Amino acid sequence: MKQSIEKLKKFFTLEANRSYDNKAVHGGLEAMLDTWEAEARQEQLPEELIQAVRARLRDYNRLTPDSRRDALKGLWNRIRREIGRDITPEAEKQAPQPPEQPKELTPDPATELEVHTPLPDDGELEEDFPPEDVPASPKVDRVEPRPKPDGPPAALDASVTVLDGVGPRNAERLARLGIYTLGDMLYHFPRRYDDYSQLKTINRIEYRDELTILGTVQSVSVRKLHGGKRQLVEAVLSDGTGALRVTWFNQPWITKTLKEGAQIVVAGKVEQYLGRFVITNPEWELLDQKNLHTSRILPVYPLTANISQRWLRTQMDKVVNYWALRVQDPLPDIILQEADLLSLADALLQVHFPDSYQALKAAQHRLAFDEIFYLQLGVVQQKRQWADRTAAIFHLDEEWKQAQYARLPYTLTTAQQNALADIYKDLASGRPMNRLIQGDVGSGKTVVAALGIGVVLQAGAQAAVMAPTSILAEQHYASFSQMLGGEGGLLAPHQIRLMLGATPNSEKEEIRAGLQSGEIRLVIGTHALLEDPVQFHNLQAAVIDEQHRFGVKQRARLRVKGENAHLLVMTATPIPRSLALTVFGDLDLTVIDEMPPGRQPVDTYVLFPRERERIYNLIRREVGQGRQAFIIYPLVEESEKLETKAAVEEYQRLQQEVFRKLKVGLLHGRMKPDEKDAVMTQFRDKEFDILVSTTVVEVGVDVPNANVIVIEGANRFGLAQLHQLRGRVGRRGGKSFCVLIPESEASLENERLAAMVETTDGFVLAEKDLQQRGPGQFLGSRQAGFSEMQMSSLTDVRLIEKARKHAQALLEVDPDLQAPENYHLAATLAQRWAAGEGDIS
């Protein structure tokens, strides 16, 4: 076939595959006319035919997609009629033979099989080109589905070694990517895409273009570099409008197939070398081959050592184009229709080898929907399972409540009273309470918890309170003892005990005996409460503070020490709405969004590093008035990589050079628990004026006298963490200060720091933090898989609400997913939602 006709064939096919959007060639089909016309005359095509092509393509950009389709079809038919003798036999001769059908594959992962995967024939023109099944115009967010082939269903559990070219060595390399089976390959998604769907002639290319070029190899050579250690393959490519140098480093084998006179397709990024355009290490293919690596939106996969992008893409093509169509879709047809989703087969095809960006977007939406939908099914089922259980009923004694309110030295806020109403309703429902109380630092969650479990304690049952650190547990012990013990309280001092990891064994034995006999009614502690020897006589309520510091299994271990005990978890980390609907969707949510009267917002400032002396003067002034200060550093020890002040290093400088007349203490995460407790006790008792610390003071530490906190390297912290640290000061009322010091003046533009100055609303900051840094800091160890989602984002509230709506509607009709049409869905859910992921165990 003449080269000019071959080019038209290529351009027309690409245009048809792109639904006639006039982007098969950069600048539109009319942009290639001058170059093509010169080449056609050189090849002595009939002048009438050349003029017909020019006439049809000159105004192509003005036509509608339907008219463009008709124009190209008519033009190609004329070409076939007028010079068919020249193109038909060769086209038939060059057309690939029908692919060998794959051997029937039994879905047995243990069986070693060899699969010969057929490749779709998308490179040859059919007689009635353009193909009849190509849509006349693109449909927004829709992809034309491919028919499901005959044959066995996808054997997704089969080992990758069933593929041609994947032996034990390559299988071992794939395993480093987490790929062991064909199913793993289907869900090994590209990390990005290179768009090589735009064709350009050489005379129109520009610096840094990412494009595809069709041309003829004029010359090819290999030369050695750096004393023979490296080799450079250099080819010169021409398309009639100009010549372009193309180079490959250390790939001498290319010369075996890249010969002078060969027509090839090259895709890559245009760079400059010595003033001339060059493409280095491009993807390339012979013109008459299937375009897997060029002329398309190209997937770029995560790799590992000794696996090349080209090899992995070829293997993915085999698997995706054969097995994706055979994947059974777990979602019922009604959900696919109502949610306007692609089939799973089409989504897998398009996410790996997209026909267009709109097809890619639709595929990503379907796969993201799946991730959120299964998560929603799991949490909604979890919630239903708890609702089906029975628990002890505890009714509120109104007279007792009013007496407790009267004992308080302050009036509860409306938000606190509403939270208590939620708790009392749960305790009287006969179902296990499963409630999350979230409230900003200082909003009064502790008193709500104490008055809530007071109803359980009044009835003679037991309760446990678990905190993540010894310091916080001690604070709770003091607070709960004050509110529930003493004169007029529910419990005698010996009925409230504190149990820590550092508690002497003899005292632990005494506490265990008291819990087992029922003599001890309320125990407050750390992870020590989870130990197997700890047994309760009648545990009916568990309170867990700073719940994101505990894993789900840890919470469950405490809860099962009673029989369907009521659970109340608390957090000072405001949880964005999207996470409240997903990760915490199995918990009932109560928000304390009102601060106690008299508490002033903390004045927050961002200052230059060179302004530290101003900050030191502020600290001296406040300490002189009887107050205390925190200075926080992000690292425990000096690092050459991170030029950040370290607490251990700076403590000595501050004490010896800056605050010589003041007492400075040091606290960091590498200290032993009893050492940390000792330092915090000293600081709380005013033995230190200033505490130099890492972020171990972030959670719950209560030093009411502290009213200044300085955070060094503030640009390294997330908003949630900065907000928690700011909450350590201003707890006694009066004016308080938070000073943020970025590492350099350039860091002042940091969005997180600006947001901290603008607002003290923890929920606003939490939403911003989720957008900027992702969900990791909110998840803790709650659900290991949530932060590893590939397609979905826990910031996408619209998708989350859409998936939740369909999950709830499905479970309303079929709560246990036992309907025949939901059998495959139930099996997939069981795979994705591992046992023990929720609070039920």
Mean pLDDT across residues: 79
Class from secondary-structure proportions = alpha/beta
Oligomer: single chain
- The total strand number stands at 21
Share of helical residues: 25-40%
Low-confidence stretches: 85-128, 130-141, 640-644, 781-785, 835-841
- Give the C-alpha Rg: 35 Å
- Based on Cα principal axes, name the global outline: elongated
End-to-end distance: 70 Å
Number of helices: 26
Strand content: 5-15%
* Major beta sheet, strand line-up: 11-12-10-13-14-9-15
Main beta-sheet annotation: 7 strands, parallel
List the helices and strands and how they pair.
Elements: H1 3-17, H2 33-42, H3 47-58, H4 65-94, H5 168-175, H6 182-186, E1 192-195, E2 210-225, E3 230-238, E4 243-249, E5 263-273, E6 276-280, E7 283-286, E8 297-300, H7 309-323, H8 333-338, H9 344-352, H10 357-387, H11 398-407, H12 414-427, E9 434-439, H13 445-458, E10 462-466, H14 470-484, E11 496-499, H15 505-517, E12 522-525, E13 539-544, H16 552-559, E14 566-571, H17 577-581, E15 588-592, E16 603-606, H18 612-624, E17 628-632, H19 647-658, E18 664-667, H20 673-684, E19 690-693, E20 706-712, H21 719-726, E21 737-741, H22 751-758, H23 762-773, H24 776-779, H25 797-813, H26 823-832
Helix pairs in contact: 1-2, 1-4, 2-3, 3-4, 9-10, 10-25, 12-13, 13-14
